[in-house]
From TrEMBL, chains A, B, C, D:
It comes from Pelobacter propionicus (strain DSM 2379 / NBRC 103807 / OttBd1). Transmembrane segments: none annotated. SUPFAM superfamilies: Aldolase. One of its GO terms (biological process) is aromatic amino acid family biosynthetic process. Keywords: Transferase. Its EC number is 2.5.1.54. This is 3-deoxy-D-arabinoheptulosonate-7-phosphate synthase. The keyword Transmembrane does not apply. Signal peptide: none annotated. It holds the Pfam family DAHP_synth_1. Coiled coil: none annotated.
Length: 339, 339, 339, 339
């Protein structure tokens, strides 16, 4: 931690800061400069709350050198974590995975048919929402428990592990009974009670980045899960909110290689939610693989024009089949052995 | 709803859209233009899901004329809603209220002392967090139930109604036992299970705007609460996330008069979280009153330099006293009768 | 400047950094920590280019303590600068000024009529665009030199100093022949050739904040003008670009008091461009005065419904007259003596 | 164009709008709805200024169906434009190009050495800045005309066409004497005088997207160049400004395929400025090619640790050589014939 003093800070101000640092159990190392003095703080183990320092007279600002996460950081855990989703391995060195399926589970026919199709086309997992977070209360909110049952059924029939969203701490147990991978949606990335609850289960978690979360906050949110004992976490970039409205969100693809540097956890990309536009999904899926993503989530629907949500960004069966052929060729090209 | 066709859409495409609109139970009114055709949709009662239409060949985009909220809209509810918080009235025509207190309840001494002081200085309600959402898991998370008890105690001793945050659906009952006004924090603005639960209680709710929520999404989130039967909702702008880092967030003060146009619900401003900087709190508090806010939330701490969170944005007792003198003069100037 | 080393940096890495700092003519002060070492840089006079340091092995990042501006900073120039626009004084301690007029000069009748009206209503300066930056080339681009002549005429007839935008370095001379205050528009805030040219004239400059410029970049842009010798600069916040689309831009009003802390230059607010909505202009104008702005720019048009640009955000004569009555009462209330 | 009336608009309001539309020379087609009336506008040729309509009583908002650009739109120009830069062809169907070189021309030795190296490694053009836009005035601003001469020299010695930035209208002639492709930087994307001047020359232009420009504004800026008669324009995405600070900017890669849909102009990607971090440049370069970019701009410097600007994002010679091997394999894989 570095404390930057005002240009006008007095020697007494500087000494008061030194003393406050000492009272916190750390050492202070003043660095006099031509314009102002800065004071280095030594001996802290990780992130320090800076409120007390910021209050002192003459203090301009505090700069943190440590990060608000440690367990998810590659600094202290250099080996890559491989997440195992009912036998499908996700992470560095593994062939990238494709998670496919509709935005929402709508009926047995819809989800089973999709599951069998995406399995045949080469998908590794099945996705489908049972609990749907929607902007307004007057639209379809998901089939809820019935949706979970249908998703699990489709998983069994196709042999694919299933992924679905959990929206509140008290439904974690229920969702974990059906899902192989529990998803935290972007709106809930900082629902800390939910994260803590997911840290206590023995199933892997797919944590989506919040719409306006920095990478630092994203990793700190994952830290909540790891801190409770669950290290099986996959991070997923799904587009951030910016001023641009030509796409649904702005896909921040550069975070795939960046997160690989900062953390040992696997990282996936969701080009469907990120772009919101069917025609952009195939190029961004392939780009994600090339940028180093350990997997992608792709929305597929038997009849997108009848989908109850997110139709415009869902691929048709035919579109998905074409994309999977490209994914297979690209993954081979990138040097991954077929499983 | 208006459906805009591609420049290259055929007559058959247009007819297919007309038919799809008819199947949804609405009427289609094609508007041929020189560059492209647009198709108006008539007869819908409120927001229509556009997924099916967007799937059809030749459709470029769909423009919504209706909004994803109705109960919170002034269009259908022209009279202002006055929210009653244990006898303190908030809303149009009422003298603007000042909610003051520390970010977090830390001890009996701290919260009672603050309560008595802010009451004497002229505050209308006491705020204090018992459950604290924090970016990383390794920092102070609040005193939880003990914090609620201390807050309620401070409320009784000072005679001030108390406001505190609730973070999950299953703690709504607990928090409602202690609080006069239940706050939903920015990170939980779209925690829909929580909103629904708050819609079922008989206490007022203070809904904070999400860091990256549009005004439309903000009002749609409030709609979740009203849709369950609770109309006692106060909206609160607390700064949005932008590219600017000189302040903690960017205070979007213009939404105060804007929300007054769009909705009948009262709107408050939180200059402490919005700016994150003590010196900016007084000018922005006064500006908020002038811009038409029905109240403000201000962080006050007996010893900000020892605060466990948000010290740098908390006013000292002396600073708050000075601010309240200005608030009183300004409120008088604006023509509000003293209560 | 503080150099933060990686967790894995070796002693040799640290020594190489120390040496590089020494070669730049500064002293290095290593601060060993439990997680990583940081190295303070002493002796620099102002901002240092960090490229060379960032290249060295083991360096994680560089943190700047100095700012990219010095002449505009209050640190080195504590007294407030008062800008004199043809006799109208703008800055700390002066009665806040109101600059009013149409977005664009459209005709002699329009601009003279407006000038006489706003003068009578109490405005201090007349604004009007002759060169108009527009998103696309197929819309009205201003009357150009004819517009300058008409504006100057209206200024003479009303007795008001005139403000107008200059868009390129080679038209600075021309615009300076007519205008009392030369405006740099938001799109040109980092048109450095233009800024340098304006630094060489002897007339005051109104520098508008870029749509996505940080306060630091805004002040550094002003530094270009001061560095060439012209200290008569007024800074103007006119809304920044964010994800919110309910208003044209997001008025970042908190920068008014913030800039007053950071710089000695006066700061004005443009609520018309910031909100883009006529009904929001009066409340945000008054809020700006209360927040500490040294003036406001308000668009006024005799017939907004016939304006060639920005009609929806222009006040009518009647609306402006009402606003000026409120401005007068508020300015009196704030304790400014009438001129 | 669609005009949306307020819920409370009267029949007289609607008729007044109909009449105003008629006076503008268009036809009005009212679409009564259950909540409100909308009015379609027929017969307009392209974008219509909406100011007059927005002024009328009862009008809530106006929705544009046409775009502020036409010449750059694929709607009216379905065939792809191929830009020819001194014999190097850029655009659909051509092998993607790599433009490489330092941020700034610093010396003859530096630029010639770099030119020869990148040519040997397989680059198609040489980049190098002679006029450098920098945030503050106290840092290196480029060698200016001397830089142009050195760049041209390096181009001749290596046989590579050269690309460099032009910052003001009055230096367009000078820069065009030396450069094969004239670059407009992000800060100048809406420097309309500069764009118009570039529309009058007979050399190709590389237009960089502004830091906070929407795709629509980006295309409308290009329209300024085409409207003056120069159709040889390459669009370049170089990262947008968002709340995220972990990378220098946010690379909005999805605009590559999006712009290919909307426009016939070629699109390139600059991963160096977009990410600001050397380690992210190779993965994002390859991802750009896969996403459909017609070329990339990559910063390369013989000694990045001594670069006068942008060192941390510049590749070393060795790093560039490795990247070019990957680019060659990827381009082959994507099916482009070697030139």
């Amino acid at each position: 931690m570095l404390i930057v003093m005002n240009h006008t800070a007095t020697q007494a101000d500087i000494e008061a800061v030194n003393q406050a640092v000492a009272e916190m159990g750390f050492s202070a190392a003043p660095i006099p400069g031509s314009e102002r003095t800065a004071i280095g703080v030594l001996g802290n183990q990780g992130y320090v709350d800076d409120s007390k320092i910021l209050e002192l007279p003459g203090v301009q600002r505090v700069i943190h050198v440590s990060k608000p996460y440690k367990l998810v950081s590659r600094d202290f855990h250099p080996e890559d974590t491989i997440v195992d989703v009912a036998g499908v391995r996700v992470g560095q060195g593994c062939r990238p995975v494709v998670v496919a399926g509709p935005c929402a589970v709508e009926s047995e026919e819809q989800i089973v048919r999709t599951a069998l199709f995406v399995k045949k086309a080469g998908a590794d997992m099945l996705r489908g929402g049972a609990f749907k977070p929607r902007t307004g209360p007057h639209t379809f909110q998901g089939l809820r428990e019935e949706g979970l049952e249908l998703l699990a059924l489709a998983g069994r029939e196709s042999g694919l592990p299933v992924v679905t969203e959990v929206m509140s701490p008290d439904s974690v147990g229920l969702v974990a009974d059906y899902a192989d991978l529990l998803q935290v949606g972007a709106r809930n990335m900082q629902n800390f009670d939910l994260l803590r609850e997911l840290g206590r289960i023995r199933k892997p978690v797919l944590l989506k980045r919040g719409m306006s979360a920095t990478v630092e906050e994203f990793l700190a949110a994952a830290e909540y899960i790891l801190a409770e004992g669950n290290e099986q976490v996959i991070l997923c970039e799904r587009g951030i909110r910016t001023f641009e409205t030509a796409t649904r969100n702005t896909l921040d693809l550069a975070v795939a290689p960046l997160i690989r540097e900062l953390s040992h956890l696997p990282v996936m990309i969701d080009p469907s939610h990120a772009t919101g536009k069917r025609s952009l999904v195939p190029p961004m899926t392939l780009a994600a693989l090339v940028a180093g993503a350990h997997g992608v989530l792709v929305e597929v629907h038997p009849e997108p024009e009848k989908a109850l949500s997110d139709g415009p960004q869902s691929l048709t069966f035919q579109g998905f089949e074409r994309l999977m052929a490209d994914v297979r060729r690209m993954t081979d090209f990138l040097g991954f052995a077929r499983e």
